Fold:
Amino acid sequence: MPLLPPVKQFVSDTGVRVYRIPCDVFPRLSGRVYLLLGLDVPTLVDAGSGAETCMRQLYEGFEQVRSEYGEPFELGDLGRVILTHAHIDHFGGLPEIVRRSGAEVAVHELDQRAVSAYDERAVRSRHAFDRFLRQAGVEPQRRGAVLDEFGYLKGRIQSVPVTRELVDGEMLDGIRVIHTPGHSPGHVCLAVGDLLLAGDHILSRTVSQLWPESVAAWTGLGHYLDSVEKVARTGPYQLLLSGHEPVIHDLGERLEQIHQAHSRRLERLLEILHTSARPMTIDELSERMYSRQQGYPALLALTDVGARVEHLEERGRIVIADLEEVAEEACPVLRYRLA
Structure:
């Protein structure tokens, strides 16, 4: 388990005190939850995964805010939870926090059903992801393991009523909402003066995880890149505070690095197809791109390649090679070649 950074205070040019509280959202993944004080009501941005260790670390973080920074904050004072997006590592702790605080919940409309009707979203998402894996050519024995890592299971999280649906461009108690779909349909970044709470849209070390639009609308590389450009037009920002990884000091430099990383991966996919003697499935392309992965890394590799394949196909760079087979089967394996 990597060592977590300490709780740290950041102050916006509008006087809002933002406390970064780190926690282990999954066994191999740490996250960041943010407590905002100095607004009309104390506000939490994201809520952790709900895992026992994560919640303990979150409550310990609140105690450090009190003891080390002199803030007279108690959980019962919390008036609002804003979700950057409805992925489990960001909203799994929401039911407990709302139960203990009575806070209202704010999320973009495109992600709100995952929060307010979790079981429905879990069933539909799992079906969509299974279909993607079948069309990607993943063999049945591996498909079950990857589906388990997907994590959307009925009953895993208790649904929570959404009090407010966030709208792109609105000001909510001094926080500007910027809708940035791509990593999730309803992902938002939150501008607090000269600080940008970027969720998982922009990370300091890794490229944000992509999802194929066949799994979830408003995801995919095209929407993500459009949202990157959208953020570039806002600001300027002193710092970007993300849902994982360290603080970002130079937005322009980081966005250029992200563009270069995506260009390299797209060119690599085209190169693989160019040198292949036959059309290839997403699973085969994934193995060539990232070697054969197991467990959660296998899911990340497949969704990354799947989103890029969709992007290239939509733009006419690659095509499906076996159209007759596709036309005859209900859920065919798709094989691609260069256009």
In short: Residues 77 and 255 are 37 Å apart (CA to CA).
